[in-house]
Design brief:
Helices cover about 0% and strands about 25% of the residues. It is mainly beta.
Length: about 100
């Protein structure tokens, strides 16, 4: 309840303890503009990211790919440091921070 008004979310778990979350929660966050994830696992994978997202930061993201419906059109910063994700860039101008 109220997920549609969330504009920013930071999920940060201590290094010694992994946090497991359900990715379904993001499907209701249609106005999410900032998403930072650190040491968090999404066992179900990630099916949805909102079109309004401007900053997406997931250090050590375990996923091999982003959702097929995820569009980078509005993303200004994408930080997937130390992640196995490969992103094909087709005319998209986005500041990537992939280490």
């Amino acid at each position: 309840m109220g997920a549609e008004v969330v504009e920013g979310l930071i999920l940060n778990s201590p290094m010694k303890k992994e946090l497991h979350c359900s990715a379904k929660a993001f499907s209701k966050m249609i106005n999410l503009r900032l998403l930072k994830i650190n040491n968090v696992q999404l066992p179900e994978g990630l099916e949805y990211l909102p079109i309004e997202l401007r900053l997406f930061d997931w250090h050590r993201c375990p996923l091999k790919s982003l959702p097929s419906n995820f569009r980078l059109d509005n993303v200004a910063t994408l930080n997937l440091s130390f992640s196995p994700i490969r992103i094909p860039l087709k005319g998209t101008q986005v500041r990537l921070l992939i280490i």
